[in-house]
Amino acid sequence: MISIEVEEAAWTDALPDVEVRAEAAARAAVVAARVEGELTILLTDDATQAELNQRFRAKSGSTNVLSFPAAPQPGAKVLGDLSLAYGVCAAEAEAQGKSLGDHLSHLVVHGVLHLAGRDHMSEAEAEAMEAEERTILQALGVADPYVAERAA
């Protein structure tokens, strides 16, 4: 089950289909990563995201996406939670010449892959994770997000 919580109205103002897009990206990533479990996606504002970033990562300021893997629970299938900050995501999309919808799809896929245990701490991990993201996003009709990011 995938739950979408829109806390920041700017998300739906900018993307009336934001819940559909976020759910489609999450579902595609869950299937591709071969994981199961409940997932909640919080679409929030920069201030809330900054609070979460400080509280759980001891980092100041907002960030585009945060992933919160669920602690293993006997008998429960919970993958975890994602939160995305509207202002940061919108600014990144504009700076990288992408639509906000495509950027949202990318960040949701990226976050779900983190929940599935993928990481990008080493160059090899980053290359593998980016390749997996590209494949998932291509199936969703989203162009390679790393081309735009590297150009920006």
UniProtKB/TrEMBL annotation:
Cofactor: binding details: Binds 1 zinc ion.
Cofactor: Zn(2+)
Record keywords: Cytoplasm, Endonuclease, Hydrolase, Metal-binding, Nuclease, Ribosome biogenesis, rRNA processing, Zinc
InterPro entries for the chain: MetalPrtase_cat_dom_sf_prd, YbeY
Pfam families according to UniProt: YbeY
Compartment(s) of residence: Cytoplasm
Chief subcellular location: cytoplasm
Keyword Metal-binding: yes
Its EC number(s): 3.1.-.-
Residue numbers binding Zn(2+): 110, 114, 120
Family to which the UniProt record says this protein belongs: Belongs to the endoribonuclease YbeY family.
HAMAP family recorded: Endoribonucl_YbeY
NCBIfam families: rRNA maturation RNase YbeY
UniProt function note: Single strand-specific metallo-endoribonuclease involved in late-stage 70S ribosome quality control and in maturation of the 3' terminus of the 16S rRNA.
Protein name: Endoribonuclease YbeY
Lineage: Bacteria, Pseudomonadati, Pseudomonadota, Alphaproteobacteria, Caulobacterales
